[in-house]
Amino acid sequence: MMNYIKYLLVGFLFGIVLTKSEAVSWYRIYEMFQFQSFHMYGIISVAIATGLIGLQIIKRNNIKDIDGQSIVIADKEKGSFRYWVGGLIFGLGWALVGACPGPIFILIGAGFWSVILILIGAMIGTFIYGLLKDKLPN
Amino acid sequence: MDIVTQTWPWYVSGFLIGIVMLLLNYFGKVFGMSSNLRTLCTIAGADKFADFFKFDWKAQRWNLAVLAGAMLGGFVAVHYMNNPSNVDINPKTIEQLAALGIDAPNGKLAPQALFGNQIFESPKMILILLIGGILIGFGSRYAGGCTSGHAISGLSNLQIPSLKAVIGFFVGGLIMAHFLLPLIF
Asked: Which residues numbered 51-70 in B keep a CB inside 8 Å of some CB on A?
């Protein structure tokens, strides 16, 4: 059980940051796609830059994880079609309801009950993918 | 306590999101929220219908703990750290939204027109939220990740597939925001 507390705490930080930065806000996503604010672009860019620098430090100094194992982050599978098309489908949904998977849960936790409909939809979408997986072009 | 209640600036927020990802890496895990949807499907019994859901979901319990923490964080931030000045979006954006019949933020994270409890009486709004969810769920699994898995984890690890997915996210988002939303509302 103790093992899970650190994950709960990291998640807690994530939930606070995404809410206080308003990255969970439908308005911020709409504003971003209208190019009417730098806010969301700034958040995403700084998050990537922080991760990039952190990962380079980890790799160059061969820093071990909490269990003393090397930190190895698997490469994404090669491919094109599924990334372009899957990404495009995801983007349509992201701009429509203004929430990606993290924010869906954060908003429900915050008491936005209508977001449960988005969660049900997202589980149906995941289920449809599971059913069609082998028939989809890769 | 301004720093608690005001909108957090992008450079602080972005930095902390990067730290969240690195902390999970330090714990030997990879940051990615949409995988939880697969786990939840399996728990709900989807493994009886498709092999995709036959996996050791218990190995993913750590990610469910992250999720539970995030929900708690959302609760605390909305109930104890808010301020009427929040969600101070561009006045031009507010004007555009008014033309679509969507209310201004006035400190709220989400518009009443889309997320107020009255939408449960509108089949159109229920359908919009469900379809949005289906696109997110299907798209993120087909693309193998969402904003956290591809945009943050993938790009910071210089993954070309993630770049393709993220460009896809933005192309899809721009099509929705500029061409489809005005038709829907």
From this structure: 52-53, 61-63, 65-70
Q: Is residue A100 part of a domain?
A: yes
Domain ranges of chain B: 1-87
Which range marks the domain in which residue A100 is found? Answer: 1-36+75-135
Question: Does residue A4 lie in a domain region?
Answer: yes
Residue whose structure tokens are 């990962």: A55
**pLDDT tens per residue, range A89-122:** 999 999 999 999 999 999 999 999 999 999 999 9
Query: Which of A52, A74, A97 faces B133 most closely, judged by CB atoms?
Result: A97
Q: What is the ipTM of this complex?
A: 0.97
- B window 101-130, beta carbon within 8 A of A: 105, 109-111, 114-117, 119-120, 126, 128-130
Closest chain A residue to B184 measured between Cα atoms?
Answer: A96
Please answer yes or no on whether A90 and B168 come within 8 Å at the CB atom.
yes
Name beta bridge partners: A64.
A70
Other Cβ atoms less than 10 A from the Cβ of B112: the count is: 14
pLDDT tens for each residue of B78-124: 999 999 999 999 999 999 999 999 999 999 999 999 999 999 999 99
Q: What DSSP string describes B84-135? A: TT-S---HHHHHHHHHTT----TT-SS-HHHHSGGGGG-HHHHHHHHHHHHH
Element (H, E) at B22: helix B10-26
pTM recorded for the entire structure: 0.97
3-state secondary structure of A136: coil
Q: How many domains does chain A contain in total? A: 1
Q: Residues A15, B71: contact at Cβ < 8 Å?
A: yes
Distance CA A21, CA A8 (A): 20
- Any domain includes A43: no
> Among B59, B56, B27, B58, which residue's Cα sits nearest to residue A8?
B27
**Between the CA of residue A22 and those of A19, A29, B13, B148, what are the distances in Å?**
5, 9, 9, 16
- Cβ–Cβ under 8 Å, residues B11 and A42: yes
